[in-house]
Amino acid sequence: MVLDVPPQKRFPADNFAEWNNGHPLGLRTVHAYVLVFDMGNLETFQYCRAMREQILDSFGHRDFSIIVIGNKYDTVTEVHATSQELKDISTLVRKHWRCGYVECSAKYNYKIGDVFRELMGCTGTGAVVSDFAQSNRNKGRCTIL
Asked: Which PROSITE patterns is this protein grouped with (predicted)?
């Protein structure tokens, strides 16, 4: 099940804190977290960074995945985000945080399938797309997994 929740001021420290909030969302019982930021507004990445830190502080080393999604890829050329800033974010997420990272555009349905493939691969509920399938998709061919 995928649950889309509004921005949280603070990640619940424990089950009691989540329940006491009045709106228990099940945030502490998931297999993966998908943190989405607006590529046209890099300040939103700082929110993802803060949420990631709170999640890690709350759980320690429990077995779960975090995936970071850069959405609104279509707006990158219209705003002041430089390609170097976006490369730095990608490197931070992939190399230092060791998290999945996908840049997409929901508006144009660009790489939305990759978001779900990344999610399924990280949670162990689906196969990660093979190099063969990746190369076929890039050539405009269809591969059924």
From this structure: RAS (PS51421)
